[in-house]
Write a structure and sequence with these properties.
This protein has 3 domains: 376 residues, no CATH class; 50 residues, no CATH class; 77 residues, 2-Layer Sandwich (Transcription Regulator spoIIAA), CATH 3.30.750. A hairpin with a 5-residue loop joins strand 3 and strand 4. Helices cover 60% and strands 7% of the residues.
Length: 531
């Protein structure tokens, strides 16, 4: 719990971070392998990226709980990049250039772009990822043939994640997987709802993994029909006899294959990876139980350096990953030691631990991820957004729907569009106020905030309704920005006012031009009484 942990202690949080890092490692391992498989890249490339994301990024990053590694959100880009360049080695060169591009973005302080993303969209992104996570883990939970599931998903690349339900409906489920999945849920819920959650060295997800290994071994020994024997129901990690076997599997970039196509893939990959990293970083900061704030520019540079090294030795592109970060938080992690721990385990797992890790039932890991997804898409979030109003609920829901159907970045962009629409609507109605004055036939039109061409219709409507012989006061004193179109509307009304016997008074009207300086320092007054 937050009150029992000294978050400023350099090593005092290891009792929380090491067990949590082990859980993140157990979740990251199949994800790293699965993403590499889905991307059409060597399996080892996923492990390389995951290990470097844990060991290299924390050195330069200021984020305590953001876990980096290969991300499912980049899978389609990796597939398209390899196809376009016709070589994984050329794609690695593009990934290396993308890392350099990220470092440049960090130096240019481009990380501030996340401040322009509405909170409703960030929350919607989390909930959407949570829903996708739960949907995609159902086949593993039910014991469907994992290899066939992956083939079905690859054969339907344009289908939504709800296609998973159709796949499951035609599948033969495995009773043993359901057994381990069911009791995994029981353990996780019990751990969360009882005093067991205070055992920092044994988080619930780790207890689930131990239960899965020991339970399946006992069932195999007793020859129970519930025992899981087939490799498609268990973790399947490649096994290497010695270190040289691993180094022989490394793939190196094709430095002589530089072309315009490589540069195009690099820029696309760099932009998308940077945006996904920044969005994840913002989301992690929002769910950090200690409410710490990360440095997005520093994170971009850290991710860029990690991508340079990863691509140099054959690894997949690296970004901050919300699923693993959420698992870290839910497992009680406090500082970045959790990331280092999972990186170390990934680095040594291929050589020393594969024979033990391959005993873990996939349904146990699926239960952990489904619980993580549920926390990301908690129904309470929907209720809260509903209570906050339509301007929060609609972007939130539309972001979720678009992410589930069309992907992460498309969903975020659609959510932002709906957020902007509501901003325009609110600004449309609140910028120009029309009131009746104390004097007979006096109409006062007050302008506040930013008055743009979007407000031209309301202004024209208000002026057209003014009766002949009236007195009109247009007060623009409090307007921060006035569009040229608005001035033209008022000038047109002024030219016609005399013909209608209208007395017009205009206060402080001028074209107040837009400033292209997006990031301005807040002006502070030395006089406490000055607002």
């Amino acid at each position: 719990m937050a009150s029992q942990v000294d978050i400023n202690s350099r090593f005092g949080t290891l009792k929380n971070d090491i067990p949590a890092g082990l859980v993140v490692f157990l979740v990251a391992l199949p994800l790293c392998l699965g993403i590499a498989l889905a991307s059409g890249a060597p399996l080892l490339s996923g492990i390389v990226a995951g290990a470097l994301g844990g060991l290299l990024v924390p050195i330069f990053s200021k984020s305590e709980l953001s876990v980096a590694g290969p991300a499912a959100g980049l899978t389609s880009l990796v597939i398209a990049g390899i196809e376009q360049l016709q070589s994984y080695e050329k794609f690695l060169l593009a990934a290396l250039i993308a890392g350099c591009f990220q470092v440049v973005l960090g130096l240019l302080k481009a990380g501030k772009i996340t401040y322009f993303f509405p909170t409703a969209v960030i929350k919607g992104m989390l909930a959407g990822i949570g829903l996708i996570l739960m949907i995609n883990q159902l086949p593993y939970l039910l014991g469907y043939d994992v290899q066939q599931y992956r083939l079905d998903k690859v054969a339907l690349p344009s289908a939504s994640d709800f296609e998973t339900f159709m796949i499951i409906a035609q599948a033969n489920i495995t009773v043993g997987s359901i057994f381990f999945g069911f009791f995994s849920f029981i353990i996780l819920i019990t751990w969360q709802q009882t005093k067991l959650k205070n055992i920092t060295w044994m988080p619930g997800p780790l207890a689930v993994v131990i239960f899965g290994i020991v339970g399946n071994e006992l069932l195999q020994y007793s020859e129970s029909y519930l025992a899981l024997h087939m490799e498609q129901h268990l973790v399947n990690l490649p096994h290497f006899e010695k270190l040289t076997d691993i180094t022989m599997e490394f793939v190196w970039p094709d430095y002589k294959g530089f072309s315009v196509g490589v540069l195009e893939v690099a820029l696309t990959l760099g932009l998308v990876a940077s945006l996904e990293t920044l969005l994840t970083l913002e989301a992690v900061d929002q769910v950090d139980p200690y409410k710490r704030q990360s440095e997005p520019n520093r994170e971009l540079m850290a991710q860029g350096l990690a991508n340079i090294v990863s691509a140099s030795i054959g690894g997949l592109p690296i970004t901050s990953v919300i699923v693993r970060s959420s698992v870290a938080i839910n497992s009680g992690a406090v500082r970045k030691w959790v990331t280092v721990t999972q990186g170390l385990f990934l680095a040594v797992s291929v050589l020393f631990l594969s024979q033990y890790l391959n005993k873990i039932p996939l349904s146990c890991l699926a239960a952990i991820l489904i619980m993580t997804g549920y926390k990301l898409a908690d129904p309470a979030f929907f209720k809260k957004k509903y209570q906050e109003g339509w301007d929060q609920l609609v972007p939130f829901v539309m972001t979720i729907a678009a992410i589930v159907w069309a992907g992460l970045l498309t969903g975020v962009l659609i959510g932002i569009c709906f957020g902007v629409i509501f901003v325009i609507i609110i600004n449309f109605h609140s910028t120009i106020h029309v009131t009746k004055g104390d004097e007979p036939n006096l109409v006062v039109i007050t302008m506040t905030k930013d008055v743009s061409f979007l407000n031209k219709f309301i202004l024209r409507q208000a002026l057209d309704r003014v009766e002949n012989g009236s007195k009109v006061v247009i007060d623009a004193t409090n307007a921060k920005f006035i569009d040229h179109d608005i001035v033209q509307v008022i000038e047109s009304f002024r030219n016609n006012a005399q013909n209608r016997q209208i007395e017009l008074e205009v206060r402080n009207l001028s074209i107040k031009r837009f400033s292209f300086k997006l990031f301005q320092e807040i002006e502070e007054s030395s006089d406490p009484a000055t607002p």
